[in-house]
Write a structure and sequence with these properties.
Number of strands: 9
CATH architecture of one domain: 3-Layer(aba) Sandwich
EC number: 2.6.1.9
Keywords: Aminotransferase, Pyridoxal phosphate, Transferase
Number of helices: 12
GO molecular function: histidinol-phosphate transaminase activity; pyridoxal phosphate binding
Cofactor: pyridoxal 5'-phosphate
Pathway: Amino-acid biosynthesis; L-histidine biosynthesis; L-histidine from 5-phospho-alpha-D-ribose 1-diphosphate: step 7/9
CATH topology of one domain: Aspartate Aminotransferase, domain 2
Order of helices and strands: EHEHHHHEHEHEHEHEEEHHH
Strand order of the largest sheet: 3-9-8-7-6-4-5
């Protein structure tokens, strides 16, 4: 039998049995300065150029191992599968606003003067309107194209491959998915039976695992539980970036913590129009410390939202006091 011993050298080799004694291995070993002994084995060095390339050869290895995120099905697909008209289908799988946006949004869409020009990359007009609506200065607000983009942006700016985040299931699954895409590890701290946070275990996980950030949802998806001020303050005192997702805050009866970003530099608050105003095709926004805003704005896609989105959301901000009465009356 043939035996190959190679030391002090790292490469890709192929060894195969040969019918005749060939000094190929020993000659190549001396040339490369390694120890190679063989009498009946032909050792061939294979270069990367000789390797067979496939489509997934260009994909990062850790991404090839991920299971794809399961998206929701649009009306058109459901209509075909169920044999029903789209208007006869009520979707409950994505917590979408069933009434849609108020009429002012459609008026704003019809009044666009330059729909063929890229929108303002910094969404100045939109952020100014949101500043009035939220009571925060525009410098604290960053607009994005939906929650997924902003969650991914946070992770790309904060996490290095191999870093950790804390997740508290059951909750919104995009935190775990985006962490995996960005090469981060997820430290799971399950919620209590009543779906409240286990603050003691969170603090223990932060101390032992040294995560970069923790993602919290209040009201939580899917159960609607609220994070109390006392628990949130305890978590904010930990050495970790706290991302508070308030997608459903308008339905909770409590005040948003978005103004807390002025006091806590390790706090980011996510807000959305998808639930509040029935506009899933337009952007989400976050409130963030001013210094962090500079870095996040630097790495956000400059042309990430279209002009109609900015106009629609400005229209919403200016008519928000009558949003629900307008929506219910119009539909």
């Amino acid at each position: 039998m043939g035996v190959v011993e190679i030391s002090s050298f790292s490469a890709l080799w192929s060894a195969k049995l040969s019918g005749a004694r060939q000094p190929v291995c020993s000659l190549e070993g001396r040339r490369r300065g390694v120890v190679a002994m063989a009498s009946t084995v032909d050792v061939q060095h294979l270069s990367e150029a000789n390797r067979e390339l496939t489509g997934d050869s260009f994909i990062r290895p850790h991404l090839r191992k991920l299971s794809p995120y399961q998206p929701i099905l649009p009306f058109e697909v459901l209509s075909t599968r169920l044999g029903r008209k789209p208007e006869d289908i009520i979707k409950l799988d994505a917590n979408e606003n069933p009434y849609g946006p108020p009429p002012e949004v459609f008026e704003a869409l019809g009044s666009m003067k330059f729909p063929y020009v890229y929108p303002d990359p910094e969404s100045r007009r939109l952020r100014a309107a949101l500043a009035v609506d939220s009571g925060l200065e525009a410098d604290y607000i960053l607009a994005g194209c939906g929650a997924d983009e902003l969650i991914d942006l946070i992770m790309r700016c904060v996490l290095d491959p191999g870093d950790k985040i804390v997740d508290c299931p059951p909750t919104f699954t995009m935190y775990e998915f985006d962490a995996a895409v960005n090469g981060a590890h997820v430290v799971k701290v399950p919620r209590k039976p009543d779906f409240s946070l286990n603050v003691e275990l969170i603090a223990d996980a932060v101390e032992k695992e040294n995560p970069k950030c923790i993602f919290l949802t209040s009201p939580n998806n899917p159960d609607g539980s609220i994070i109390g001020d006392e628990d949130l303050i305890k978590i904010l005192k930990l050495p970790v970036l706290v991302v508070l997702d308030e997608a459903y805050i308008e339905f909770s009866g409590i005040e948003s913590r978005m103004k807390w970003v002025k006091k806590y530099e390790n706090l980011i608050v996510l807000r959305t129009f998808s639930k509040r105003a029935g506009k899933h095709t337009v952007s989400q926004f976050l409130e963030i410390d001013r210094l962090c805003w500079c870095y996040f704005d630097l790495f956000e896609e400059p042309l990430n939202s279209w002009m109609s989105a900015n106009l629609c959301q400005c229209s919403f901000s200016w008519t928000s006091s009558g949003l629900w009465s307008i929506s219910l009356e119009h539909y």
